[in-house]
Every structure is written in structure tokens, then in C-alpha cells.
């Protein structure tokens, strides 16, 4: 058990995209620290998880209402839902692939941010409240062969900064976490490009992928009460990729 076990006891946390990859690691981290946790995913398998389609406004609204009712409010909302598209240069990228990336990553971020802000600004709260969207280092720099994905993640960063400004007067912090590739099933979307990890890490000074646990630890710290002065930020967790 970690030294700060129980650090999140009593915090009411909703994790979206909680049954895969980074979302699962984030949910597990909060559960281990004693949070009151609601998990949501597109097609959940856990009996207590909520079905939530981030591309559908009605589904998002219903999921947030259920989570807030179940937990008695929301202190932390983390949206880890996201998709890649098959690698392709922009000249060959299909409209369908681009639209899907935008629907999940950008529209999904918007709908979840809107629902979180509505829930968290409806009434005063004594607790520190935070919203975090898992964006990508591709939201900070270009991403050759992943142009649609990069565009959608840049949109997430813009939404985050706007939401942070609008939410500050309510005492709600809004940030985005921008990891480089991590050791998750999402890498399978890259097809053969994921078979040679060295190609994915050649621009990363630390020469490796992030682990889901590292991303989860960063997400929890960003949203923690120890970090109350951070808002409107797009935090790179990229092994040094954007430093050079």
C-alpha cells in the first residue's frame, strides 16, 4: 500500500473511459486511495459502471446526472475517452476517419466539459473541484500520419483553456494532461506501426513509452487538493519530447 493510501477518501470522482487503458489505470488509482468512484464507459462490463457515449449529448447528460446522484455530487471529473485513427498522411486521410476522431476526442471533450461545469457550478461547494481531460502531446505539437487525431487534441487544449477561465469564479479548476504514447491497447490502432516501439520513441529523450500508472499518478496529482493553483494548463507528460 502506498504511503498516501486513503488520500482521496471522501472525494467524489467520475472517470469516463474507465474500462480501458489510461482510464482504467486512473480509476484504479482513485479506488486505491479511497475515493467514492463512479466509472463510465461506452460499453461497460463492470456491473456498477455507467454506460456513457461521449459523442451523444443525451447520454452524457444522463450519465453525469446518475453519477452525481449516486455519489452525492462531483468533486473530480476525468475524461479519458479517446480514439486514434489509422496512420495516414493528410492527403490520404479519409473524412470518415477524421470525423470519428473529432466526434470522440473533440465533441466528446466538449460535451463532458459542459456537463461537468453544469454539475459543479450549480451550487457552492467547500471542497476543491477539478476537471481533467486526457488530451495528448499531439495536442501540443504536430503528429505526422495522425493529423486528424492531432487536430482533435488541439481542440481539447483550446476547450480546456476557455473552460478554465469561465469556471475560475466558481472555484473549479480545468486542465488537460498531454501524454505521449503509453503502453495501452490504443496502440493497436496504429497497426504495424506499433510493432516497433523504437520508432514510436525515437523522438523521446527517455526512449520509452509512458506506463498507464505514470499517467494515472499525474492525473491524480493535477486534480488533487495539493495542486489548487493550477488551472487552464495543458501539461505534457512526454518523456521530454516537447523539450527539444
- Assess the beta-strand content as a share of residues: 5-15%
Major pleated sheet: 7 strands, parallel
- Count all strands and give the number: 7
How much is the average pLDDT?
A: 93
Structural class: alpha/beta
The radius of gyration computed from the alpha-carbon positions, rounded to a whole number of angstroms, is 17 Å
The unreliable regions are none
> What percentage of residues falls in helices of 4 or more residues?
25-40%
Question: How would you describe the shape?
Answer: globular
Please provide the ordered H/E string of secondary-structure elements.
EHEEHEHEHEHHE
Q: How do the strands of the widest beta sheet line up side by side? A: 3-2-1-4-5-6-7
Count helical runs. Answer: 6
Our measurement of the CA-to-CA distance between the termini, rounded to an integer number of angstroms, reads: 37 Å
Give a brief description:
The chain is α/β, with parallel strands linked by helices.
Please write out the topology.
Blueprint: E1 12-16, H1 21-32, E2 36-41, E3 50-51, H2 57-71, E4 76-79, H3 95-120, E5 129-134, H4 147-167, E6 172-179, H5 197-201, H6 212-223, E7 234-237
Parallel strand pairs: 1-2, 1-4, 2-3, 4-5, 5-6, 6-7
Helix pairs in contact: 1-6, 2-3, 3-4
Describe the structure.
- The protein has 244 residues and is of the alpha/beta class.
- The protein has 6 helices and 7 strands.
- Strand 5, helix 4 and strand 6 form a beta-alpha-beta unit.
- Helix 2 runs parallel beside helix 3 (95-120) and helix 3 packs parallel to helix 4 (147-167).
- The model has no long low-confidence stretch (mean pLDDT 93).
Amino acid at each position: 500500500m502506498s504511503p498516501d493510501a486513503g488520500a482521496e477518501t471522501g472525494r467524489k470522482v467520475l472517470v469516463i473511459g474507465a474500462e480501458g487503458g489510461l482510464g482504467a489505470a486512473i480509476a484504479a488509482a482513485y479506488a486505491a486511495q479511497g475515493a467514492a468512484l463512479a466509472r463510465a464507459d461506452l460499453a461497460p462490463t463492470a456491473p456498477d459502471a455507467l454506460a456513457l457515449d461521449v459523442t451523444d449529448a443525451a447520454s452524457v447528460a444522463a450519465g453525469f446526472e446518475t453519477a452525481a446522484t449516486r455519489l452525492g455530487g462531483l468533486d473530480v471529473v476525468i475524461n479519458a475517452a479517446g480514439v486514434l485513427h489509422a496512420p495516414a498522411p493528410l492527403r490520404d486521410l479519409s473524412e470518415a476517419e477524421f470525423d470519428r476522431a473529432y466526434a470522440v476526442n473533440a465533441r466528446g471533450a466538449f460535451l463532458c466539459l459542459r456537463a461537468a461545469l453544469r454539475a459543479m457550478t450549480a451550487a457552492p461547494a467547500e471542497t476543491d473541484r477539478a476537471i481533467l481531460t486526457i488530451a495528448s502531446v499531439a495536442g501540443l505539437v504536430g503528429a505526422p500520419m495522425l493529423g486528424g487525431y492531432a487536430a482533435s487534441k488541439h481542440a481539447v487544449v483550446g476547450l480546456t483553456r476557455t473552460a478554465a477561465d469561465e469556471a475560475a469564479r466558481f472555484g473549479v479548476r480545468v486542465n488537460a494532461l498531454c501524454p505521449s504514447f503509453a503502453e495501452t491497447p490504443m496502440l493497436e490502432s496504429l497497426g504495424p506501426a506499433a510493432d516497433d516501439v523504437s520508432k514510436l520513441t525515437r523522438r523521446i529523450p527517455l526512449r520509452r513509452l509512458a506506463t498507464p500508472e505514470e499517467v494515472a499518478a499525474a492525473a491524480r496529482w493535477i486534480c488533487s487538493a495539493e495542486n489548487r493553483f493550477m488551472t487552464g494548463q495543458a501539461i505534457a507528460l512526454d518523456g521530454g519530447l516537447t523539450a527539444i
